[in-house]
Structures are given as structure tokens and as C-alpha cells.
Automatic annotation (TrEMBL), chain A:
Lineage: Eukaryota, Metazoa, Chordata, Craniata, Vertebrata
Family label: Belongs to the copper transporter (Ctr) (TC 1.A.56) family. SLC31A subfamily.
Stored InterPro entries: Cop_transporter
Protein name stated in the entry: Copper transport protein
Subcellular location: Late endosome membrane; Membrane
Bilayer-crossing regions: 20-41, 92-116, 122-142
Main location: membrane
CC annotations in GO: late endosome membrane; lysosomal membrane; plasma membrane
UniProt KW Ion transport keyword: yes
From TrEMBL, chain B:
A cellular component term, taken from the record's GO annotations: basolateral plasma membrane
Pfam assignment, any one: Ctr
Protein location: Apical cell membrane; Basolateral cell membrane; Early endosome membrane; Late endosome membrane
Protein name, UniProt field: Copper transport protein
Annotated region (Disordered), positions in chain: 18-38
Signal peptide annotation: none
Species of provenance: Sphenodon punctatus (Tuatara)
Entry's Gene Ontology molecular function annotations: copper ion binding; copper ion transmembrane transporter activity; identical protein binding; silver ion transmembrane transporter activity; xenobiotic transmembrane transporter activity
Amino acid sequence: MMPMHFFFSDKVVLLFDFWNVHSPAGMVLSVLVILLMAMLYEAIKVGKVKLLQHTMQAIPTSLSSDRLDVSEGASVNSGPGQPEHSTPRRWFLYHVSQSLFHVVQVVIGYLVMLAVMSYNTWIFLGVIAGSTIGYFVAYPLLNVR
Amino acid sequence: MSHSHHMDHIEHKMNSSMVTTTESHEHHHPTTMPEHSHGGGMMMMEMTFHFGYKNVPLLFSGLIINTPGEMAGAFVAVFFLAMFYEGLKIARESLLRKSQVSIRYNSMPVPGPNGTILMETHKTVGQQMLSLPHLMQTVLHIIQVVISYFLMLIFMTYNAYLCIAVAAGAGTGYFFFSWKKAVVVDITEHCH
């Protein structure tokens, strides 16, 4: 029967029926995997924003090289609605990759939720630690250009 | 109950024999044992991912999937629910941005002439709580929370088909609805 409260144990079945942990070593490994998953979740959130920033920067420069020889700053100020018409392929690629990122984010988010739902305290602590480390490491990268 | 349980067991063995070669029997005893002792009308919750379309409870007590056709219907319904969820999130965001833009335009010419009219801008911001856009946002927020919990509970069935439906719906919804959002973000970024 499913446990309904947190408990410490080195026995747990996580997500798939082949992910069956019944030893301290296996538990350490599982916690590490879950920790990495929680970190990856934070990294993907940041990655989506980074991708947006990256595309934002790339498009005005391609605009200026395509159309008129003005400096980058001037082309940024030029047309607000123009980029998505002038380089639709790039936008499409950006949008597809952003959507894929989103799917991965949703899936990992649910998987982490299900792992927490095992009510195993070690796994739970792994999720919290992974989320913390992921946030701590990934968010400063937002400001790096 | 015993019949369906038997079916479940067979399905499990088939499933796990594809993945793990030898230990499938050992693996399954701990998870299936409590089901025997329970016996009553309560449905056993699955604890790992599985493909199956028999005896899958879905959110409400009357909704139990038993045939492939019902599973296909549930797949489509969940897919659209997840899509709708993504659309709702993005719609809320753009709605919020729209109301903020109108407020900013209202307040922008005000501080120019003299200092007394500056009070008026504060008043308009304060009235935000009882305004129509905010009421709208609140109602949409309730809908969003309910749907997100539904999706979470659907994922919690561990049924692989339904989980795929949630993920695919989220992806498709994001793909179609955030197309416009990307452009909107672009405009605001440039206007800064």
C-alpha cells in the first residue's frame, strides 16, 4: 500500500518498476539521479530564458546586415514588429526548440513530483538539494552575456 | 475485483519481462501483496509507470477506463485539457500585460505638468484590486489552479498513455499559443 507520510528507508520503487531500490548504495545513487533531475529542471527554466535572449540578440544583427548598414544599436531601436517577419525561419527554429524545452520541463517537473510522492525522506531531501543547487548555479548565468 | 486484478498481474508480468529479464517475479510481490489484503471496493494505486487501458480510474468515481476506445477518448480529452492549460497561462500573461500597459499610459502624461495630479495616479493603482481586469485575472487564476491540479492527478495515475497525453498537450499548446507571446515579448523588449 502507498505510504501517506514521510519516512526514512532505503527501500523504494521510483517511477518505473525496474527502478527498484533496496540497498543503501542504490539509495545514494537514486538520490543523486533525482538531485540531478531537480537541477536539470532549474537549468531548463534558465535555458528557456537564455534561448530567448540569444535569439533576441541574434535577430537585430541579422536584420542590420540584411537591409541597411547601420550600427547595431540603431537597428535595435528601429522596428518593433519587424524581426518576426524578416527572419521567419530563425523564429520558427527558435520556437520549435523552445517548445521542446517546454515539454522536457513539464515531463521532468512531473517526474520529480512523482518521486517526491514516494514519501521517502531521502528522495525528498535530494529534490530540495537539487532544486537549491540548480537555482544557485543556474540563475547567475542569466546575467552573463 | 479478483478478475481484474488477475489481468493486471498478467499485464504487469508482460510489461516487466520486456524490461527486466529475470527478476520480474520478485519485483512484483511487494507491490501486489497489499492488494490481496485490501480486497474491498478500494482501487489499488499503481506505483510505477505502465501501459494499460483496463481499470484506469480517472479523477472522478464514475470515470473508469476499461476499453481501448475509452482510453483513446481520454487521451484526446487530456491532450486538449493540457493544451488549454498552456493557452490559459499565456492568455493570462498577455491580459496582464495589456492592463498594465493601459495603466502606464494613463499615468504617464500625469507627472509632466505639475505635482498635484500625481495623487491621481496613485488612486488608479489602488483601485486595481476592485477593477474588472483584476477580477478577471482572479477568476482565470482559479480555473488555472484547478486544471493544473487535475493534470497533476492525471499524471499521478502513472498510466503512460495519459502521461504522454499531458506532455504532448503541453508541448502543442505551448507551440501554438506562445507564438504570439514571443512577438509580444519582442515588442516590449525593444520599447524599453
